């Protein structure tokens, strides 16, 4: 069994090998989710551990990181990954244990489509809103600035409520 690798070297190497997924500036302490262009802090002094792992589903490697504040992150082909936070939504059927910023973008797109549908939003819009909130809260906990997403979700929710109140069912 090989000795554990230095977490900073491991993170640097993984990011260099996967430049379309994640970028990290050790000097700035900024971790960038390349698919969405979003960033969160990852100061070297806050990294308690990092471990290279293999995804049993697709056999891709990823880096699991534990920060000193107790937040776990993963660097994967989908970008910076984190746990959703369902404290405000309660348990959600089908919610994966790990999500990424692209998941939030997908939920926003689903909600945007629901507000434009001629027949109005249906139950799936409420489900998408709940998932979006859990991903948003998880992203906030990971350190992403989600203020723009909060405003967008508030506007989408207001539009869904307006459409439902005018006769469409959710």
- Roughly how many Å apart are the termini? 55 Å
- Provide mean pLDDT, rounded: 92
What is the succession of H and E elements?
A: HEEEEEEEEHHH
Helix count from the secondary structure assignment: 4
Proportion of β residues? 15-25%
What's the shape? elongated
Strand order of the largest sheet: 4-5-6-7-8
Total strands: the figure is: 8
Poorly predicted segments: none
Percent helix, as a range, is: 25-40%
Broad structural category: alpha+beta
The biggest beta sheet is recorded as: 5 strands, antiparallel
How many structural domains in the coordinates?
Answer: 2
> What is the alpha-carbon Rg in Å?
18 Å
Structure description:
Helix 2 (101-116) runs antiparallel to helix 3 (123-142) and helix 2 runs parallel beside helix 4. The chain folds into two domains: 7-82, no CATH class; 99-165. By secondary structure, the chain is α+β, with helices and mostly antiparallel strands. It has helices at 7-17, 101-116, 123-142, 147-165; strands spanning 22-25, 30-33, 38-41, 47-54, 61-67, 72-76, 79-82, 99-100. The longest helix has 20 residues, at 123-142. The chain is elongated. Strands 4-5-6-7-8 form a five-stranded antiparallel β-sheet. It has a three-stranded antiparallel β-sheet with strand order 1-2-3. The relative contact order is 0.13.
